[in-house]
Design a protein that fits this description.
By secondary structure, the chain is of the alpha/beta class. The chain contains 24 helices and 21 strands. The model is unreliable at about 265-300 (pLDDT under 50).
């Protein structure tokens, strides 16, 4: 038995005590000292690497163990168990109290139940060293939460001793359990790791996911100041965490909250508050935290999306295709899986879970906008344009359009999406970046490797096939070249003579999915000597998800995709050849975990859905704004029209009045004339009468004479 002591910068007299023990037992005690604290996870990893025994146990500072603890656990482990769990004592020194605690909370011990109900602490267990070497402890708070359920799932026949053997000091000042601050949110990273492992491990997938659900319930109460973040995390992973019989049973027995309101429809879909009011018999209102209603009750919106690819592309299907077709297939399948309505415009022969609208014969990019307008469904939220010319984005479609540039292009938009930061930088514009992703379930994984190098891709000068041949020739290594020939003359004149003259180099042509899987997972290394600025390089992540390292030239997005492994990026062919022969490559499980963290279909589609929502919301806001502007314009026009009408009416009234005055005036003149005529007539009549009278008088006078 040996003792490995990790002293990561303690400020007391620990280092002096350790030195005394090392002097007494120099062969059995290994002491490692750090100048400053580098984290519990890192300390555990260093201790595992330095240990020489077949089994490993952990003892934290300030704790102690029973004299026969590891003897009993080791004896049990010899029966073929990779892990043995025991009970422990909790020591409360403030109250001078020691309480026995269960290391496993159920009556019958099984591997599945151990994931659900065993304590996640690492110190009440004995591990086989080979088991601990399968994963690394994350250098975060709650590194045990991120590792223990995975270790139990990977262990061969874990066992349980119902005996308390470890003494754990509770209420220790400065411990993570009693601390707070932003590092508390490291628990989200721990849950991420568990979810990623669950998606790889179908045997214990439901158990690990339910463990995460239990943790979320616990931490909402344990760290209430960060409860909003925990509710947000639950909402984000609702599709995974809300299913399963474990969840249903735990809700029915009140073991956990009904986070998503799926099993108890009579109660709200948020966590009940312990301080709920009991006197309000009418509405039974509760003191509900704002974050509970905000995150737990939120429902995901079902979107109606059109995916469009260029007519010159190959049919979109599950069969191995080029990068663009592969990404369109992955996005379409994942969206349908999440319940969204998708219509794919693609070449004839495309096979996806969504509805496919095939292109007619002799179809070109320029025909797409009019064709989509005629054939699209009545209700569509957004068009995702994957065409190389972005022709759909260039035209007015009446609905929002999001363009993704899978290849270098001169066409730029403010909302352009690029598959890498390098591609965006090469375009010289500000845009959005969504990395490509792949479905881990479609790729086989193997830790066993054969002694051959692999080049897989289209046979073109830009892909650097000739450099892969140079590496194989220099190192006298076996090289397999796979991929369709896209430049016959280049292959016939340049490549084939060198392939024929070297028995270690083999060209096997284009490979189908099963053959491709076998090549990727068994290769010692995949060469990616591309000499042009690759927008992404899908082969890089396809190899790593299979557990195979990649050596790439520093062109395009290679350095960005291999950000976690900069040692795999080469600046010259000489460096590439040297590393292909001498480089100690990262372990296969580390490569796979890296891809699972950054480059999965789920991650890619999460980002695209966020962009879809933003684009749709912006479009709707603009639409509402336009309606308002049009409404105002209509009102202005209507006001002007009314003014004109009113003006016209006034004119008519004025004219009528003027006409009436004129008419009246004319009538008055006529009347006056008539009156004048009558007066004149009377005057003349009187004058005539007078004249007659005077005449008669004269006649009478003459007669009298």
């Amino acid at each position: 038995m040996e003792l490995v002591i990790i002293n990561d910068g303690s400020s007391d007299h620990s280092s002096e005590i350790i030195k005394e023990f090392v002097k007494q037992e120099p062969e059995r005690i290994i002491s490692i000292h750090y100048a400053e604290n580098q984290g519990v996870g890192n300390s555990r990893n260093v201790g595992i690497a330095q240990s020489r025994g077949d089994y490993i146990g952990f003892v934290d500072s300030d704790d102690w163990i029973a004299n026969n603890m590891f003897e009993l656990l080791y004896t049990k482990a010899l029966d073929g168990h990779d892990m043995v769990i025991c009970d422990y004592f909790s020591r409360y020194e403030d109250e001078d109290l020691t309480i026995p605690e269960k290391g496993y909370a159920q009556d019958i011990f099984t591997q599945k139940q151990a994931i659900l109900y065993a304590q996640v602490v690492p110190w009440n267990k004995l591990y086989k060293k080979e088991l601990l070497q399968k994963i690394e402890y994350l250098n975060i708070w709650y590194e045990d939460v991120a590792s223990t359920p995975i270790l139990i799932s990977l262990a061969n026949m874990p066992a349980y001793l119902n005996i308390p053997l470890y003494y754990y000091k509770r209420s220790r000042p400065g411990s993570i359990a009693n601390s707070s601050g932003p590092k508390v949110l490291d628990i989200l990273r721990a849950w991420d790791r568990l979810i990623e492992h669950a998606q790889l491990n179908n045997s214990f997938k439901e158990e690990i996911l339910f463990f995460v659900t239990k943790c979320i319930n616990f931490y909402i109460d344990f760290k209430p100041e960060y409860a909003e973040h925990f509710w947000e995390y639950a909402r984000k992973h609702r599709e995974l965490l809300s299913v399963g019989e474990y969840n249903r049973q735990a809700v029915e027995t009140n073991e956990i909250r009904d986070l998503f309101g799926l099993f108890n429809q009579s109660t709200p879909i948020y966590a009940t508050n312990q301080n709920e009011t009991k006197n309000d018999t009418k509405n039974e209102t509760r003191n509900i935290p704002k974050y509970a209603a905000k995150y737990a009750t939120q429902k995901k919106r079902t979107l109606s999306i059109i995916q469009v690819i260029s007519p010159i592309c190959s049919p979109v299907s599950a069969v191995d295709t080029a990068g663009t077709e592969k990404m369109v297939y992955e996005i379409t399948q994942e969206l349908v899986k999440r319940g969204h309505k998708v219509v794919l415009y693609a070449p004839k022969g495309s096979k996806v879970s969504a509805k496919v609208v095939p292109f007619p014969k002799y179809f070109e990019d320029r025909h797409l906008p009019a064709f989509i307008r005629k054939t699209r469904p009545s209700k569509v939220d957004l068009i995702h344009d994957h065409t190389f010319s972005s022709i759909v984005r260039l035209r007015k479609m009446g609905i929002p359009v999001l363009p993704t540039h899978h290849l270098p292009t001169n066409i730029e938009f403010h909302d352009s999406v690029y598959v890498s930061h390098a591609a965006r930088k090469n375009a010289g514009v500000k845009g959005l970046v969504v990395h490509n992703g792949i479905n881990p379930d479609e790729y086989e994984y193997s830790e066993g490797k054969d002694d051959y190098l692999l080049f897989i891709g289209r046979i073109l000068p830009d892909k650097g096939v000739i450099h892969a041949i140079e590496v194989a020739e220099r190192n006298h290594q076996k090289l397999i070249i796979a991929g369709p020939i896209k430049d016959e003359e280049y292959f016939r004149n340049i490549l084939q003579p060198r392939i024929d003259n070297n028995e270690n180099i083999h060209y096997i042509g284009a490979v189908a999915s099963k053959q491709k899987q076998e090549l990727l997972k068994r290769a010692r290394c995949v060469l990616f000597p591309s000499i042009w600025k690759e927008p992404f390089g899908l082969v890089l992540i396809e190899a790593m998800i299979s557990g195979t390292p990649v050596l790439a030239l520093n062109n395009g997005a290679a350095l960005e995709v291999l950000e976690g492994f900069p040692q795999l990026v080469c600046n010259s062919i000489d460096e590439l050849a040297h590393k292909a022969l001498h480089e100690p490559f990262p372990p296969p499980h580390v490569l796979r975990e890296y891809v699972l963290t950054k480059f999965t279909t789920a991650t890619m589609v999460d980002q695209y859905i966020t962009l879809y929502e933003q684009k749709i919301n912006e479009f709707m806001k603009r639409r509402v704004k336009l309606k308002r502007l049009r409404g105002r314009k209509f009102k202005l026009l209507r006001g002007r029209k009314l003014k004109r009408l009113r003006g016209r009416k006034k004119l008519k009234l004025l004219r009528r009045r003027t006409n009436l005055k004129l008419l009246r005036r004319r009538k008055n003149i006529k009347l006056q004339r008539r009156t004048n005529l009558k007066g004149r007539k009377k005057y003349f009549i009187k004058k005539k009468i007078k004249a007659k009278r005077s005449v008669t008088k004269r006649i009478k006078a003459r007669s009298n004479r």
